[in-house]
Amino acid sequence: MHPQRSLRPDLETIVLQNKNMDISIIVPLFNEAESLPKLYEWIARVMKENKFSYEVIFVNDGSTDESWQVIEGLKAESEKKKEEGVVRGICFRRNYGKSAALYCGFKAAQGDVVITMDADLQDSPDEIPELYRMITEDGFDLVSGWKQKRYDNALTKNLPSKLFNATARRVTGIKLHDMNCGLKAYRNEVVKNIEVFSEMHRYIPFLAKNAGFTKIGEKVVQHRKREFGVSKFGLNRFVNGYLDLMTLWFLNKFGKQPMHFFGFVGSLMFFIGFVAVLVVGGMKLYALSNHVPAMLVGVNPYFHIAILMMILGCMLFLAGFLAELVIRNSPSRNDYLIKKEI
User: Which of 92, 65, 87, 61 is nearest to 76 (CA)?
Assistant: First the structure.
């Protein structure tokens, strides 16, 4: 077993066994020991039939079963048979989540086209040749699978998934039916220029779009029933997914200019509160000048609401100012993706 590595390893320093390969297949997994041999055998058969040079990168996300031992066995068997493909493995000390697994897989991938798929045999490797063609011949930067016919529970998975994807299409502007599909194909340049973190694997197409890779396509893919084990995702993913979507939207729109949001909202709230204070004070002066009984300003609820808005406005403005100071001192403040140079 390889020694422990940090969560952000310099995977580019790994000595390559096969350069200029066609496809890198990244398989993140957690407790999928039973399905791995069948999955790898299926992948190897498809690659051989289509004469692809390839590597399969298994990312073991802290499995508590025999998954890592199975991966070591697959690598040893592949080397013994002298197969065209290369088996590689990355093993986490504990469970970090799918985003961390994809991040490390992307860093390690060397193929011209990168394919991601789940390890539970619900994604079909038979889809790989067409996904590869769409990237290399049709010119897509990213192709996402669409499991048009699903075998999941309609109430707990299918319906929430439809609502989730409808919201994601509205917010991101990317017209995909299944943004979170595990089966995707990428141009290598895409995975090297996006950073998948937290639980943002659900929004990789949005990350790619924000990085300037706008040619995003979709392909109807086969969804198969799970043969082994149980699903690792619960209903909480839909709540977390919504919050992550709002985070990505905000970072994309105001990540480089936080003052444009906090400063505007803060100034607006302060202005409304200030005008309200003037109105309350003016009404009191008018009542006094006309000898009309009027409520004390200190006990007027509108006065306290106005003061609260002024205080919140100042706090939001200050938050924007501090955020700008952080951005201005960030080493990545001038990181821009350059497409070409001459």
Answer: 87
